[in-house]
Design brief:
The chain has helices at about 5-25, 75-105, 140-155, 165-170, 175-185; strands spanning about 35, 40-50, 50-55, 60-65, 110-115, 125, 130-135. By secondary structure, the chain is α/β, with parallel strands linked by helices. The strands form 2 sheets. The protein has a 4-stranded mixed sheet with strand order 1-2-4-3, covered by helices on one side. Strands 5-7-6 form a 3-stranded mixed sheet, with helices on one face. The chain starts with a helix and ends in a 7-residue tail after the last helix.
């Protein structure tokens, strides 16, 4: 342990820094706080009303209507629940549009797509053609979503990470190395499928 002390301390400091960065970037449910959506930052604006969320791309606002105002103790819980459900709906819609297009380009069929909430993976692919995509990808730019989908679709042909697998990913998404690196730098322990 003494021999490796510097290495251990260096990695512990890095892990502590990583944790503090994650805590700092955690979503706040207050007026004007930002949330990433498809790679763009949207400011949250709260309104009293029926439970509804709308996106204004012109003003980059995410308008969140809730039946309670921001001073109500239930506000954060209701907002978190409603926003998560809305983000999952948006993710499913976008993934459902992109999957068939990319599958057709590769010439593969998948059984169906499911949303995932995995803490350690962006996507996964089963041998019988079920692809799971982490709904949190909705925060990233479309190119990152396409990379993860291409990655999982390539597993329908190669259930490994061989050179042939990466060649298939490259056929679907030629810029995959740059985007993969971008995704890894965003989260040090990038989930893969």
């Amino acid at each position: 342990i003494l021999e490796k002390q510097e290495w251990i301390l260096k990695h512990l400091r890095a892990k502590r820094e990583q944790q503090s960065q994650r805590q700092a970037s955690q979503l706040r449910f207050e007026e004007g706080a930002t949330i990433p959506l498809l790679g763009d930052a949207f400011r949250m604006r709260f309104e009293l009303g029926r439970s509804k969320i709308t996106v204004d791309h012109g003003t980059t606002e995410l308008r969140i209507q809730l039946p309670v105002d921001t001073s109500d103790p239930l506000h954060e819980t209701m907002c978190r629940t409603r926003l998560k459900a809305w983000l999952q709906q948006q993710a499913k819609l976008i993934f459902s549009q992109r999957m068939p297009e990319l599958a057709e380009q590769l010439g593969v069929d998948y059984k169906h797509m499911q949303l995932s909430s995995a803490g350690t993976r962006w996507g996964s692919c089963t041998s019988n053609g079920v692809i799971r995509l982490n709904w949190r990808l909705i925060h990233f730019p479309p190119q990152v979503i396409d990379y993860v989908i291409a990655h999982e679709l390539a597993h329908l042909v190669e259930l490994n990470h061989s050179p042939r697998f990466w060649s298939l990913v490259g056929e679907l998404f030629p810029d995959y190395e740059r985007v993969r690196s971008m995704l890894r730098h965003h989260y040090d322990d990038t989930p893969e499928g």
